[in-house]
Amino acid sequence: MATTADFRNGLVIEYNNDLYTIVQFQHVKPGKGPAFVRTKLKNLKTGRVIDNTFSSGVRVNVARVERRPYQYLYKDDVGYYFMHLETFEQIHVDGSMIDNPEFLVEGIGVEVVVHAETETVLTVDLPQFVVLEVVYSEPGLRGDTATNTLKQAKVENGSIIMVPLFVNVGDKIKIDTRDKSYVERVKA
């Protein structure tokens, strides 16, 4: 059991007979009335995000979850396959449990979140950044670097990313997997 004082981002709690992870929380102490905690909760089965308000000090059940290191192997019609890095055990995961699965590149390391009591896979967390090569992009204008103008670029996995004008075909770029945004150009 935990209270609202123990809330932190990523904490998995049992709420309405389901497992939710805390995406965002804020302690609020209004000038009049009791304190409360405003939260955004993500359902681990459906992926739906809901807003909820807890009274300050209310007790919640914390679910015991483990983060295990896995390596992405391949994808087929059934789903995605991963291998545990220590035991070499292979698991199959449905694509709905992965945020932005298009950034899975063969051999990439991921963290699989597993419910410890039932040994069921809850989610697959990709690394925050991946490095991919640009396979197609319109050429930028020489010297046009004073503005924050962006253009579309297609990377090796087929995703379209908005990049600055100086990025060319063959460049390797770092991409944030959470919001599919360009971070920087990577030197070879």
Describe the structure in your own words.
- About 0% of the residues lie in helices and about 55% in strands.
- The chain has three domains: about 1-60, Roll (SH3 type barrels); about 65-125, Nucleic acid-binding proteins (OB fold (Dihydrolipoamide Acetyltransferase, E2P)), CATH 2.40.50; about 130-185, OB fold (Dihydrolipoamide Acetyltransferase, E2P) (Beta Barrel).
- The chain has a six-stranded antiparallel sheet, with no helix packed on it.
- Strand 8 and strand 9 (about 90-95) form a beta hairpin.
- The mean pLDDT is about 90.
- The protein is mainly β and about 190 residues long.
Task: Please specify the SSE layout and strand pairing.
Blueprint: E1 2-3, E2 12-15, E3 18-28, E4 36-43, E5 49-55, E6 59-62, E7 65-75, E8 80-84, E9 90-93, E10 109-115, E11 120-125, E12 129-137, E13 150-155, E14 160-164, E15 172-176, E16 181-186
Antiparallel strand pairs: 1-6, 2-3, 2-6, 3-4, 4-5, 7-8, 7-10, 8-9, 10-11, 12-13, 12-15, 13-14, 15-16
